[in-house]
Task: structure prediction
Amino acid sequence: MEQTNQNATVERKKRILSGIQPSGTPTLGNYIGAMRNWKLLEDQYDCLYMIADLHAITVRQEPAKLRAQSMQMLSLLLAIGLDPEKNVLFFQSHVHQHAEMGWLLNCFTYMGEMSRMTQFKDKSAKHAENINCGLFTYPVLMAGDILLYQANLVPVGADQTQHLEICRDIATRFNALYSGVFTIPEGYSPKVGGRVLSLQDPRKKMSKSDPEDCFISILDTPDVVRRKYRRAVTDSEAEIRFDPENKPGVSNLLSILCALTGEQMETLTASFEGKGYGALKDAVTEATVQTLTPIQERFNQYMADKAYLESVYRQGAERAGRIAERTLSKAMRKIGFVAK
Ligand code: TRP
Result:
């Protein structure tokens, strides 16, 4: 037993890096699909979670709101149970190497590659009054985020896979020119997941940029949760059956319930035999409130303890900065800058 433990510590753990923009409160979908898995990774991997505030300013931000949302995001990471000793939690803007690496990599990325990014096309359509260069080169900054830490794995949702792909391309190109600077990262999909769909239009993903009634926020109170599920779209039948094709609304509620209770779908649907949609909505409300309440309690405690939050993000930036500096200075040396 001892032996295995020792061997396990000698072997370097794989490194995971992920970034979360501090733009509004995550949804129940973000929680089920991504965030709750992070806690499960902290022993097996060497994990860094970065609050991507530099990315956030690619769209206009109100200063006080950006600051508040950044602190909220940090509190939420702690509230979902991430241990700040085991995970490096930090603000991107506190580690200056991100901006610097972003510049370097800009010079190894082609305009044509960036023009193909679907998120740029979507976002520039949405923010037609502010199509700035940062929005355009956003994937380059993100590539730097990942490469600075020599991350092996990057948990990303479907909307970010194109950015991860371009990161791999940039890293491969750079390595071909200068050899052995960057680890080529791979995507990481959690084993347990579940795609949570909009409560009003269950053909698309639950998203916080849709109207209020479409999503449950992690910080929604029990009353709000209940009201949103009550209004959730179902169908005109009365049968509770998992059939995403023909019954997307009901199936979405069933998947959420499954994800939150850990029950098998068959067991769950069987337990609803002869019952109406009201019973399903009550059950999913109950399960959601039970999941969110303890998170919200911890969130409030962290939010009230500024000194603690400060110690967490300072320590995070220090640890992250040390790793990032190693990669940045290596890249700079390889490019041919005179050493300091
Ligand atoms: N672009 C990501 C998003 O909008 C956030 C992000 C920034 C990120 N840097 C990252 C994700 C690095 C993974 C790795 O969701």
About this structure: The CA atoms of residues 333 and 339 lie 7 Å apart. Residues 306-335 form the longest helix (30 residues).
